[in-house]
Write a structure and sequence with these properties.
441 residues; alpha/beta; Rossmann fold; 15% strand; binds nicotinamide-adenine-dinucleotide; transmembrane helix; Myo-inositol-1-phosphate synthase; NAD(P)-bd_dom_sf
Length: 441
């Protein structure tokens, strides 16, 4: 496959609907890394190594030296928001990063001014921004977003573009007939059908142009048959949903360990306090429902109670998010896990994670953008399940259960990179190190 990957020549535009806490933390961070004043901790594309060949080969290149990724110096950021603040102002308001760090990268941040958003207040009731496009139909709105992307590409002389949704979580709804195929979807755009969410407008615009689209929120967005169809038609990678940070990250690290040791779980109670704009949006029950569904699915898939009823058949799982302004972006979460072991004896695990949401999310956005761009150059289209590692609610082919175990997700991601580069896949079998054993079999 290696010969098929186009080199990462020229500039890559990363366009982001939603220039809030996560997006501005990413952009400021990349600028700080470029200046040499910070390190991109938490980003696999920048920091991690990958093993190649046998353990005895001692080949552990950095991922960025192994696969042809865009260089940070070749990235140009842009985006849309319902508030007109430039990225410096928005990052200052978000209060994730220290002001002195933001001041050190003020110039490039101030230069990024959001384009007017494709927005519908019914989808995010707690937002009052007015930096919004006017439109007659949703088809017209999609054409405006297409024009935005094309103009941005031309203005900055970009070779390639990717879109990553970092906008607010939209209200919960289920797909209907207009989402089932592209013809219905395009007709619904013309009819200005309100069942087409704003995030779908951005996704449609990107895919029409053959531009990869990843979704960092739990909204349906590209996870509908119509847009999967469009992604195949225009040979474009898609991925979603919902960045895996904080409490869910911990769940997908811990739960595989419990199930690996065949320990039972009776209950898992998770609660959070969060005071940023995301927390305010999620204070609306319709928006929280979207998040809740995404967060709840994780444990079911890892424990598989239908296969392991004695261990997980009666598990009670509850997730709460409470809006609590004093904490800002510094979310605090508590998990109480009631487990049982040998002969049914009960034990408890308590986790109290004082996390920084956007600090965990920013490197995910960077990696998703760089890997989606790589996938496009490697001629991979449709759902990129190998990027499940980054997502709470990974999009998969119809009928295929998502893999939530973070360690399996990492193996999948690394093996995909090895496969792309024509390296042997690593199975971790290891019998070949014990030749006499293999010969005796
Ligand atoms: N921070 C995390 O750890 C994390 C984890 C998983 C998912 N997410 C999701 O990522 C998204 C961003 O999180 P955040 O903390 O940056 O939130 P935020 O509220 O700070 O930023 C979201 C921004 O999106 C804008 N927006 C809303 N609708 C829009 C539209 N239609 N077009 C353009 N802009 C729009 C809002 O004005 C806001 O500025 C949220 O959906 C959140 O649920 C965040």
């Amino acid at each position: 496959m290696k010969t098929n990957i186009e080199p990462a020549e020229g500039k890559l535009g990363i366009l982001i609907p939603g220039l809030g806490a996560v997006a501005t933390t990413l952009i400021a961070g990349v600028e700080a890394v470029k200046k040499g004043i910070s390190k991109p901790i938490g980003s696999l594309t920048q920091m991690s190594s990958i093993r190649l060949g046998k353990r005895t080969d001692n080949r552990y290149p950095k991922i960025k030296d192994f696969v042809p990724l865009a260089d940070l110096n070749d990235i140009v950021f842009g985006g849309w928001d319902v508030y007109a603040d430039n990225v410096y102002q928005a990052a200052s308001n978000a209060k994730v990063l220290d002001q002195h760090l933001l001041d050190a990268v003020k110039e490039p941040l101030e230069a990024i001014v959001p384009m007017k958003a494709a927005f519908d207040h019914n989808y995010v009731k707690n937002l009052t921004g007015t930096h919004i496009k006017e439109f007659t139909t949703r088809y017209d709105l999609a054409q405006q977003v297409i024009a935005d992307i094309e103009n941005f590409k031309e203005k900055h002389n970009l070779n390639r573009v990717v879109l990553v949704w970092c906008g607010s979580t939209e209200i919960y709804f289920e797909e209907s007939e207009i989402h089932q195929n592209l013809a219905n979807f395009e007709q619904a755009l013309q009819n200005n059908d309100e069942r087409i969410a704003p995030s779908m407008i951005y996704a449609y615009a990107a895919l029409k142009l053959g531009i990869p689209f990843a979704n960092g929120a739990p909204n349906l967005t590209v996870d509908i048959p119509a847009l999967v169809e469009l992604s195949k038609l225009t040979n474009t990678p898609i991925a979603g949903k919902d960045f895996k940070t904080g409490q869910t990250l911990m769940k997908t690290i811990l739960a595989p360990g419990l199930t690996a040791r065949a320990l039972g779980v009776k209950g898992w109670f998770s609660t959070n306090i969060l005071g940023n704009r995301d927390g305010w949006v999620l204070d609306d029950p319709d928006n929280f429902k979207t998040k809740e569904v995404s967060k709840l699915s994780v444990l079911e898939e890892i424990f598989q109670p239908e296969i392991n009823p004695e261990l997980y058949g009666d598990m009670y799982h509850k997730v709460r998010i409470n809006y609590y302004p004093p904490r800002g972006d510094n979310k605090e979460s508590w998990d109480n896990i009631d487990i049982f072991g040998w002969l049914g004896y009960e034990m408890q695990i308590k986790i109290n994670f004082l996390c920084r949401d956007s600090i965990l999310a920013a490197p995910i956005v960077l990696d998703l953008a760089l890997f989606m761009d790589l996938a496009k150059r490697a001629d991979m289209s449709g759902i990129q399940e190998w990027l499940s590692f980054y997502l709470k609610s990974p999009q998969t082919a119809p009928g295929l259960k998502p893999e939530h175990d973070i360690f399996k997700q990492l193996i999948k991601l690394q093996n995909t990179l090895r496969h792309m580069m024509g390296e042997d896949l690593i199975t971790h079998l290891g019998l070949d190190y014990y030749q006499e054993l293999v010969e005796s079999m």
